[in-house]
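Deviation from plan, reported transparently: flavin-adenine dinucleotide complex.
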Amino acid sequence: MKIAVLGGGVIGVTTAFFLGKQGHEVTLIEAEAEVAQKTSFANGAQLSYGYTEPLASPAIIPKLPQLISGRDAAFRIKPALDSRLLSWGTQFLKNCTARRESQNTQAVLNLALRSRDALQQLLKEHPIAFDHRQAAKLHVYTQDKAFQAAIKKAQLKTDWGYLQEILTPEQCLAKEPGLNRYSNHIAGGIYSPQDEVGDPYRFSVALREICQTEFHATFLLNTRIEQLVRHGNRIKQVETTRGVIEADAYVLALGPQSAQLVKTAGITLPIYPIKGYSITVPATDQAPQVSITDTDHKMVYCTLGDKLRIAGIADMVGDNETTDPRRIEQLIRTAQQRFPQAGDYSRILHQWSGLRPATPNSIPLIGRSTLENLFLNTGHGMLGWTLACGSGAVIAALVEDIEPQCEGTFGRRSEPKRETLIIGRFYKGNENNKS
Ligand SMILES: Cc1cc2nc3c(=O)[nH]c(=O)nc-3n(C[C@H](O)[C@H](O)[C@H](O)COP(=O)(O)OP(=O)(O)OC[C@H]3O[C@@H](n4cnc5c(N)ncnc54)[C@H](O)[C@@H]3O)c2cc1C
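Because the crystal trials were delayed, the predicted structure below was used instead.
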C-alpha cells in the first residue's frame, strides 16, 4: 500500500519504520527541516517502561485549587474559556477514580512492555548510536505519605510483570552515590532496574536514514500539511505547501497539532497540550548514572553521554510555544540545589520547551479513526519516547489487519474515545494470551 505518515516526530518516524519494514511504500510529511524538531527533540530521554501512571488520579483532585491558582511550581493550569480545555477537563475528571487509574496504568504498561521488546528487536537488526543504555530509574521520595502510596503502585506493577524494587534511603544511596548531596531527607525510593535512557532526536534521525536507505521511504521535509481532504468516509488527499499528496492510507502522527489538523476532516480528538521544559549541561564525573526522578519537583535527571539532561514542569497554557525564561531558571535553581556537583550549570548547552500531546486518560490514540483509511498514532503525552516503538509496531500490524484480537473491531466506525478503551483491552488480551 501507499501510506502517508503525517508528522515526523519520534512517533511518525517509528511508524514509517514499521510500515516500511512490512513493505509498504511510505511517504512521511513534516513541516520542519529535519525530523524530531518539536516535542521529540530534547525531552527527558527516559525510556521509562515502569512509570506508566496516568495524570488523572484520585490524588490530583484535592490539588486542583493549588494547580489552578499557580501555587504549585511543577504543574500549573491556566483556566481559560476554551471549549477544548473544558471538554478535555471533563473527561480528565471522569478518569480520576481509583479503578480508572489502575486500568489506565495497566493499559499503558502493556504498551510500554511491547515497546521495549520492539526497540530491542529493532536494535538487533539496526544497531543505532543514540546514547542508549539500561540506566535503571530511581524515583526518590522525601515525604513518607507519598512514598507509602508509591509502594502500593510498585507492588501492583511487579504483579503485572514489571519489576520495581522498594528501597530504603541507604539503598537509594548505594544505587546512586550522587544522591549524597540531596538536600532533604529521603524517605525511600522506587527502583526500576529495567528502565533505559536514550536520545530521541539522534534515534529519530538515524531511523529516518534507515527508512530512506533500506525501505526507500520518501521524507518530504519543510512541507506543511494545510488540510486533509475528505471524500465520503475516506481521506482523498492531503494538501500541503508543496502540493497535493495522495495515498491509500494515512497515519496521523502530528503530536500536539493532531487535533487541530484532523478537524479539517471533521474529526474531534481529545488532545490538549501540556508544556514542559528541559536544560542540557555538560555532565561532570559526579553526574548520576542511574536516572533520577525528584518526585517533589517532578523533575528528571538523566546522563546522556557527556551531557546531563534535566527536564520537568507541566504547564497547561494552551498552544503557546514560547519558552518562559522563568521556568528555565526554576529548572537550573532546583538542579543546583539537588545535584550541585552533577553538571556545569554555568554552561547551559541547550534550553528548550515542548508541548506534550496529552489525552484525558494518558492512553494514546492508536487505531483506525472514524474514517476508513485514516489511522491515528497520537496523544502520547508524557511518554511518547517510551511508547514510540510499540505504537509504531501496533499501527503497522493494524494496517496489515493481522491482529486476531482486533478483528471486527477496527473495521467498524468507532469514536476516538472508544479507541482509547480498545487499545487498553487489546493489550490486556494480548498479555493474557501469552500467559
Ligand atoms: C519536557 C518534556 C519531557 C519529556 N520527557 C519524556 C521522557 O523522558 N520520556 C518519554 O517517553 N517521553 C517524554 N516526553 C514526551 C514525549 O516527548 C512526547 O510524547 C513525544 O515527543 C510526542 O511525539 P510526537 O511524534 O507525537 O510529537 P512531535 O514530536 O511534536 O511530532 C509531531 C510532528 O508533526 C509535525 N507537524 C505538526 N503540524 C504539522 C503540519 N501541519 N504539517 C506537517 N508537519 C506538522 C511537527 O513539526 C512535529 O515534528 C517529554 C515531553 C516534554 C515536553
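The mean pLDDT is 90. We consider this an acceptable substitute for the interim report.
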